[in-house]
Amino acid sequence: MKLHGITNKEETVMQIVSTLARRQLAENVSLESSLKHDFGFDSLTMLELCVEIENAFNFSIEDKVSRIKTVGDIAAFIDNDSNDITVCDIDYDIEDYPFPKTKKHIKQLRRLMRISLFTWKFKVRGLENLPVDGRYILCPNHQSHFDSLWIWTAIGRSHVDLKKICCLAKHEHLGNSSSRLLLNLLGGIPVDRGGNTVPAMKRGLACIQDGYTMLLHPEGTRTLDGKIREFKGGAAKLAIDAGVPLIPVRIEGAWDIFPPHRKIPNIFSRKGRYPISIVFGKPITPDGKSVEELTAMLQNEVERLGEMV
Question: pTM here?
Answer without folding.
Answer: 0.76
